[in-house]
From TrEMBL:
Organism lineage: Bacteria, Pseudomonadati, Pseudomonadota, Alphaproteobacteria, Caulobacterales
Subunit details: Homodimer.
Record gene name: pdxA
This protein's pathway: Cofactor biosynthesis; pyridoxine 5'-phosphate biosynthesis; pyridoxine 5'-phosphate from D-erythrose 4-phosphate: step 4/5
Name under which the protein is recorded: 4-hydroxythreonine-4-phosphate dehydrogenase
Recorded GO CC terms: cytoplasm
Length: 333
């Protein structure tokens, strides 16, 4: 196993994070990739079904103990946890876990960050100012330098499908006004850059989805394609990206269509999330592109409705860990 592990921030303590982390460790403990959890060691031991936990102080210790125990950088919670009942009182530690993971990734002490799910509502109640993980990570890494186009751009990956978003956590009613030529071009550049650097595709092909039904039907069903998306696709081509579209979204996701591109740029959240989850509901991965650190996460939420019952599946977290390790290895190469 590599001596530079991944870090996993533990997510909302009232959700399934501790359970799926423990299950992922059991699945990966012998073959890796090794990781260190940033969270509450006592919670991980109890919610993880009696998993053996080892508190460590330095990430490089993780590889040494990983086969025998789940390594944890222990940052204890300040109030009790009830499974399935999120609380704003946990927000300061949830945020601190994320900040610690980002700091370790920026310093090079860990090779990347995998984030267990958080719930936005209790964080908002505690004064959290960001729509979600993605935007918070962008703020935390904003001062760090990096080459190329900058995000954050959210990618969802499942099987052979890699879908990125122009707008992320935006109400559907506000998506048309949120689209701009600049936003689409930047998302396209970030996506093409990631397909080359992080996925090893030398000459990536990028499909671009339309916003409106039938790609606007020549303007009869909306003019966003004519006025914004088509000029953005032309600009991407002029910048050296092999981009096609805008194409009607209902033509882009069947198996034959997916052979014609390496990534697809979607205009809004559910345009990407629905096909990804239809293709692999349990194993999809969320990747944040255009950051100076590697970041992935499972493509599901906190699971408050099943927390504490021992039935949460770790598939997506395991896939996120493996993909983060693969991306980190490519960036080192």
């Amino acid at each position: 196993m590599t001596s530079r592990p991944l870090a996993i921030s533990a997510g909302d303590p009232a959700g399934v994070g501790a359970e799926i982390i423990a299950k992922a460790w059991r699945a990966l403990r012998h073959e890796g990739p090794a990781f260190v959890v940033i969270g509450d060691a006592q919670l991980l031991a109890s919610a993880g079904g009696g998993v053996k936990v080892r508190a460590i102080t330095r990430p490089q210790e993780a590889a040494q103990v990983f086969a025998d125990a789940l390594p944890v950088i222990d940052i204890p919670l300040l109030s009790p946890v009830v499974s399935g009942r999120p609380s704003p009182s946990h927000a300061p530690q949830i945020i601190r876990w994320i900040e610690t993971g980002v700091g370790l990734a920026l310093s090079g002490a860990v090779s990347g960050l995998v984030t267990a799910p958080i719930a936005k509502a209790p964080l908002y109640e505690a004064g959290f100012q960001f729509p979600g993980h993605t935007e918070f990570l962008a703020e935390l890494t904003a001062a760090a330098g990096m080459e190329g186009a900058r995000g954050p751009v959210m990618m969802l990956a499942a099987g052979d499908l890699r879908a990125t978003l122009v707008t992320i956590h935006t109400a559907l009613s506000k998506v048309p006004s949120a689209l701009s030529l600049e936003a689409i071009v930047n998302a396209g550049l970030v996506t093409a850059q990631a397909l080359r650097r992080d996925f090893g595709i030398a000459a990536p092909r990028l499909a671009v989805a339309a916003l409106n039904p039938h790609a606007g039907e020549g303007g009869a069903l909306g003019r966003e394609e004519i006025e914004i998306i088509e000029p953005a696709v032309s600009a991407l081509r002029n910048l050296g990206v092999e981009a096609s579209g805008p194409s009607p979204a209902d033509t882009l996701f069947h198996p034959e269509a997916r052979t014609r591109y390496d990534g697809v740029l979607c205009m809004y959240h559910d345009q990407a999330l629905i096909p990804v989850k239809m293709l692999d509901f349990w194993g999809g991965v969320n990747i944040t592109l255009g950051l100076p650190i590697v970041r992935t996460s499972p493509d599901h939420g906190t699971g408050f409705d099943i927390a504490g019952r021992g039935i949460a599946r770790p598939d997506s977290l395991i896939a996120a860990i493996k993909l983060a390790a693969d991306i980190a290895a490519r960036r080192r190469a």
